[in-house]
Amino acid sequence: MRVVELDGTGDPGVLVPGTRPTPRPGPGELLVRVGACGVCGHDALARRGALAACAGAVLGHEIAGRVVALGTDVPGGWLGKRVALVQRIPCGRCDDCTDGATTHCRSGPGFYGEDLDGGYAEYVRASPLNAVELPDEIDDATGAILSCAVGTGLRALRSAEVGPGQVVIVTGAGGGVGLHTVALARHLGARVVGVVGSPAKADAVRAAGADSVHPCADITAGAAISAHDLRDAVRALGSRRGAHVVIETTGAPTFSTALRALAPRGRLVLVGNTVPGPLPLDPGLTIVKELRVSGSAHADRDDLTEVVELVADGAITPVPARRRPLSEVADAHAELDARTVIGRSVVIP
Ligand SMILES: [Zn+2]
Ligand SMILES: [Zn+2]
């Protein structure tokens, strides 16, 4: 089968065409013909060598497609189904899995692009434990982005207990996760302040449901929006003492400012880490305001199931930013590096 693999780490030129034997589904596994694969900021970090992926890896963890073969011990009904996949295949047997914490499982086949070959390929291995059936009205390009670009935000918003009337700040609001988190927060009845890296992304974030949008002068240089401006934006939405929740999808460039915009007992949930490294947490502020700072990982199968239902019901409408053939995945990476993509792009093998 055709793949695009990493020939070392570095600029997008290290993404090169290659071939692999088509995988055979093991016991309990599905073989999925990839219909589309999202191109995520996580992939760009992996390509630069900041994550576990190494030379020869086939990246791509945002996958939808059709089940074309079954391993032993898989109910025959899976054959031919169109599915969206969660980015990790859990084992289904370890303590984390039996506790329902499958995102923490480290005993299964693992995370696409790191532990097993990912979706920059014609076929991937999958499992009933990470696959959710897609209805006909959701195409593969949309299905591909539902777990990472949409499910991540849903899981974070749930963990922050976001509800009607609350004010939610979403940083990196023009990114794949950010844009869909804005739409989901709005769907949950919250009012939303979006912080974007570039003014060019503001219209899309407003269209996704943000009540106000604030460019952060140069997110790569860490020049954040001022805390004063952000607090004013929250006040304008009627929350005098600050925001109830921050969903932090960028990390270092906006963390301190966003933390200071929280009301007493506010919750900041970290889901993105675009500039890996430690963050400066102000202990005085955190103690006096009784803030909660937590992390939220990728979606699990239950989250993805809920997202598929929300999209099928028309509650939210994710739209891939751009569709390219797999052979042009390096162009999609270059666009990510330049921070010009709004939302999430996909490649089609
Ligand atoms: Zn992703
Ligand atoms: Zn497990």
Structure description:
26% of the residues lie in helices and 24% in strands. With 349 residues, the protein is an alpha/beta fold. The strands form 4 sheets. Strands 3, 4, 5, 8, 9, 16 and 17 form a 7-stranded mixed beta sheet that branches. Strands 12-11-10-13-14-15 form a 6-stranded parallel beta sheet, sandwiched between helices. It binds zinc ion (2 copies). One zinc ion binds next to helix 2.
> Can you write the helix and strand succession as a string?
EEEHEEEHEEEHHEHEHEHEHEHEHEHE
Number of domains: 2
In total, the number of strands is: 17
- Going by CATH, the homologous superfamily of the largest domain would be Medium-chain alcohol dehydrogenases, catalytic domain
Strand content: 15-25%
Coarse morphology: globular
Parts with pLDDT < 50 across at least 5 consecutive residues: 218-223
Mean pLDDT: 94
Give the number of helices. Answer: 11
Largest sheet: 7 strands, mixed
CATH fold call of the largest domain: Quinone Oxidoreductase, Chain A, domain 1
Cα gyration radius (Å)? 20 Å
| Distance N to C terminus | 10 Å
Helix content, binned percent: 25-40%
Which CATH architecture of the largest domain would you pick?
A: Alpha-Beta Complex
Q: Which class best fits the helix and strand makeup?
A: alpha/beta
Bound molecules: zinc ion
CATH class category label of the largest domain? Alpha Beta
EC number: 1.1.1.1
Domain Enoyl reductase (ER): 10-347
Region (Disordered): 1-26
GO cellular component, one term: cytoplasm
